[in-house]
Amino acid sequence: MMKRMKALRMLRNKVVLITGGSSGIGKELALEAARRGAIVVVCARDLEKLNQVAQQCLILSGRPSFAYQLDVTDPDRVDEVLNTIRHEVGEIDVLVNAAGLGDFTAVKSQSRTVMKRMVDVNLLALMYLSRCVAKQMMDQGFGAIINLGSLDGKIPTPNAAAYSATKAGVIQFDNILRMEVADYGVQVLTVNPGPVATSFFDKADPDGSYLSKLPRWMIVQPAELAKQVWAHVGYETREINVPGWTSWLSWGYQVWPGLGDWAIKKFFDYQQDKRSL
């Protein structure tokens, strides 16, 4: 089984399904998979953008590429699309759950609707897709499931409580799913990036109050992130934190949480928010 999983290190002719594939991290993962010769399948709600990405993948890979309109929070539609993929494309070798959204608002000001939407997209949809595809991969004896967590799931930051909770849920879900599928040759890789230079922050942080606190060298470029992700597929890697030095930050926070809270509040000038109450 490990020998078959190692075959995923070369993506040529492997079927790679990516949710959130119309933009941002999902799009860059799709393009990089195509450069490595994969048969790329992208899913998202915006079919026009999806078709553009699929066309780019076709040019890069020289292999068929596919686009399916999908709202990942609709389980019936998820079942329908997965069934269509298996009939029109083939069995899925790699699943990437990259669909996600954020809202960086203080808990006291955040609506229940927004909280629920983040849970539905970032966590529940990811769990359901992972569950559906894991069953198929276990039957075929190999595969890889790549789930997008976040550094926010390991290190708390002000005004990101609900978002961070969904990402912490992804990390713990993967920890247990990994044990359940390991004997079947299925890799579960959790990707925890820091802030990535995508349009994600246009909606999550429209006034720029979060990003403005971060130095430019902390911002991750999505194309570089995609290369790092694919470099770890087909191995026994459990998770990757990008940039790599953030692993030390999360370790330090677990050891000295009180000091960590103080440092984070100072870094984000969190007292300013408290004065506004």
Could you characterize what this model shows?
Its EC number is 1.-.-.-. This protein is an alpha/beta fold and 277 residues long. The chain has one domain (2-247): NAD(P)-binding Rossmann-like Domain (Rossmann fold). Helix content is 49%, strand content 13%. The protein contains 11 helices and 7 strands. The protein has a 7-stranded parallel beta sheet, with helices on both faces. Helix 2 packs parallel to helix 3 (47-61) and helix 9 packs across helix 10 (257-267). It starts with a helix and ends with a helix. Residues 271-277 have low confidence and may be disordered.
Properties at a glance:
277 residues, alpha/beta, Rossmann fold, seven-stranded parallel beta sheet, 11 helices, 49% helix, 13% strand, globular, oxidoreductase
What is the number of E strands? 7
| Spatial gap, N to C terminus | 57 Å
Mean pLDDT: 89
Sheet of most strands: 7 strands, parallel
**Please, what is the CATH homologous superfamily?**
NAD(P)-binding Rossmann-like Domain
Secondary-structure element pattern, one letter each: HEHEHEHEHEHEHHEHHH
| Largest sheet strand order | 3-2-1-4-5-6-7
Tell me the helix content. Answer: 40-55%
| Overall CATH architecture | 3-Layer(aba) Sandwich
C-alpha-based Rg, rounded: 19 Å
Molecular shape: globular
Strand fraction equals 5-15%
CATH topology heading: Rossmann fold
* Estimated structural class: alpha/beta
Number of domains: 1
Pfam families: adh_short
Organism: Limosilactobacillus allomucosae
GO molecular function: oxidoreductase activity
Enzyme class: oxidoreductase
